């Protein structure tokens, strides 16, 4: 799907001269901003990927170049509080770090009886109730105790499980995905949804309108015509006027991947619907099956998203109903969130602790997926292992990955190589940040093979895991809605780490020695970062 975006952008990039034939000499290629970044690195030891050198940046770069090393002060340091590419480029609209550490003041770990000294405050560590409380406070979510998980790192098994759950559903099937592909797996799922709806189960399906439109609309129209309630987020033309009234742009996507059945079982993770996601030996991906009390939170998440989209559809006069037969609420403000039919009490047994997080850039200043990812990285004391399909970390995230390395945390990232990526554009956007991160000690491993590594998982200190839809890129940080599950339980963390080791064995460590022609392509891709 990154392909159609790439197609649209091809002409634009061509115009930018992103081609081997336009290769420049080193002297020509090092622009003022890069020169200023290198000067700063020589003076402070801290290299930060510079912005695209426009007129304003050039003036700032010239200023930095004229400062002798001995006069370098904080004023010239990159504070790295960027949220997304525009902040990365121009330094505007950036969000400061939230004060997540509130313990006694400290200067070193020795001053703290437990845990470590995190950003000047004693802190009990990522696997503590203290940290859980902080995340709860900022995200207004609750950590739930009890229940079970099953890590789904096999495509075939995930397909069968989704099918089984839908086929056995008795009351409700709630599903959300970025895309349902026009292929045998997409239509198979559509038929399962239709069959459930026709035997009286309430079936609700959410997709991203733009992405789905480029894949197939007939598939979701077929579902809508046969009893499935369908909503499509942010259609390009139908919501055009609405976008002038709300904090939403044509670039915003619904990206969460969720299935909740009968309020008893939920699957949350990285897979959309299609052959590449759900057939063995195709893309590498990870979901997790959750049962027990945490399902209530995931159900709430889905119903909140459904209510939001119903409301927005209502405000555009239900054009989706008129054109495609999609769902339309019967009155303004219609809400399912508090409808107790959808919630089933569950025993709080077992040692699992889990927290479902919904990231919504429409209403959250720092979208919560981004906040949670940043907070977990800031809280790491020993290790951070990341598997992420699209690794284009915004400046604030890079700052904290580097800070983690600096305090001795072992940071490893697996992302796609040039051969495994499904969008060469994403590869070059990612390559842009290799040098900065590798030189700080972050190990970036490139997944080898011809199929995509599509997972979005993280484990911190071998104790806390994240499984969800959040790509480590500007789009997931500030444009997409996302769903994540943070888990604390030895068994599921062991499974995540085992799965990570399998991928690590299939990956090779990237080098910071990147050919100039490759770096030039990477730099050009900074221009289109927010669109990728
Ligand atoms: O945005 P993602 O991470 O769901 O991936 C997008 C498509 O699956 C691949 O282009």
UniProtKB/TrEMBL annotation:
Listed GO biological process terms: cardiolipin biosynthetic process
GO MF term list: phosphatidyltransferase activity
SUPFAM superfamilies: Phospholipase D/nuclease (SSF56024)
SMART domains (UniProt xref): PLDc
Domain (PLD phosphodiesterase) ranges: 250-277, 449-476
Cross-referenced PANTHER family: CARDIOLIPIN SYNTHASE (PTHR21248), CARDIOLIPIN SYNTHASE C (PTHR21248:SF12)
Name of the protein: Phosphatidylserine/phosphatidylglycerophosphate/ cardiolipin synthase family protein
Taxonomic source organism: Microvenator marinus
Top-level taxonomy: Bacteria, Deltaproteobacteria, Bradymonadales, Microvenatoraceae, Microvenator
